[in-house]
Amino acid sequence: MQMRPFGSHDFQVSALGFGAGHIGADGMTDQEASYLVQTVLDRGINLLDTARGYGKSEIRIGQALKGRRDSAILSTKVGYDVAGQEDWTYGAVSGGIDQALRLMQTDYIDIVHLHSCTRDVLARGDVIEALAQAKQAGKIRAMAYSGDGVDLAYAFSTGAFDSFQTSVNLFDQRVTDSLPQIAAKKKAVIAKRPLGNAPWRFAERPAGHYAEEYWLRFQAMGLELKESSWLETALRFTVFEHGVTSSIIGTANLSHLDANLALLSKGPLPEARVNELKQTFKKHDQDWVSQV
Question: What's the CATH number where 107 sits?
């Protein structure tokens, strides 16, 4: 597993991260979730990305990491659903961090994101201040923002954040023009949806798979497949994009995880193919905004 520096921080993260949304579902037992997390770590993936809104995910991560906390880089997202606090206020962010610390049974969280709030919320300043005070207190190591489009651009312009999580994939490429600038500032970027929710799975536009918009773009771009699979093309395109620190993929299936690792062992796509994919996106771009 390729390890990469996390911006200007003194820790590294795996090029492939684990999206822990699946382990928060009621359809998975605590034992199954623990085994999955333990196996992910055994495969060399150290970035575990969760959120306050991912069901039982945080508490199950805490259970799975007993005795292995130093093996993981924990990333979570806050800003809402804290009893007695209005969403997107200082109290909601501060309270979310404290609850995440308790649930994950840890003294600190490596990366804490504001979970896709708007630039108007950011401009008030209180949610950023909550992160800053938590960092000063040693509760978190990196202040981060998760979001896209104009909200992401505003978050970057504040200079307050150490890291950003945003959509980067074959069908969501607009942010790639900004990645070198972000990297030059020694900021980290975690790519979400690196597969674009795999729209090639569907013969017709899907409903309820969060791939509807990407399916339309997939059709509009009319790409010719020149690699062995769309999965491989999409995964290698995003993971090895300049400026991307780690790309998170969620799964409950270990065979899928191992297949992804095997594909990544091939390294980056040929430069000519990457350029072709980028030119195809620009040619067919119909004011496509990044998907939150």
Answer: 3.20.20.100
- Other beta carbons within 10 Å of 231: 17
Please state the φ and ψ torsions of residue 160, each to the nearest 5 degrees: -85, -20
Examine the pLDDT at 226 and tell me if it is beyond 90. no
Give a yes or no: residue 4 inside a domain: no
- Lowest mean pLDDT segment, chosen from 15-24, 209-218, 264-273: 209-218
What's this model's pTM, rounded to 2 decimal places? 0.94
Alpha helices in the chain (DSSP H): 30-42, 57-64, 90-103, 119-124, 126-136, 149-158, 179-184, 212-221, 230-239, 254-264, 271-284
Q: Which residues pair with 113 in a beta bridge?
A: 77, 144
In a domain, 223, yes or no: yes
Which of these, 175, 215, 213, lies nearest to 165 by C-alpha position?
175
Using alpha carbons, select from 14, 65, 13, 16 the residue that is nearest to residue 36. Answer: 65
- Domains in the chain, number: 1
Amino acid at 178: S
* 130-to-117, 124, 127, 148, 165 alpha-carbon distances in Å: 14, 12, 5, 21, 19
Please tell me the predicted confidence (pLDDT) of residue 239. 97
The residue range of the domain holding 54 is 10-284
Res 227 pLDDT > 60 = no
C-alpha Rg value of the chain to the nearest Å: 18
Whether 233 contacts 269, CB under 8 Å: yes
Domain assignment of residue 186, yes or no: yes
The residues, any chain, with a CB within 8 Å of residue 227's CB and separated by 6 or more, are: 233, 236, 269, 273
Q: How many CB atoms lie within 10 A of CB 267?
A: 11
Residue 15 lies in a domain: yes
Pairing of strands 3-5, 12-14: antiparallel
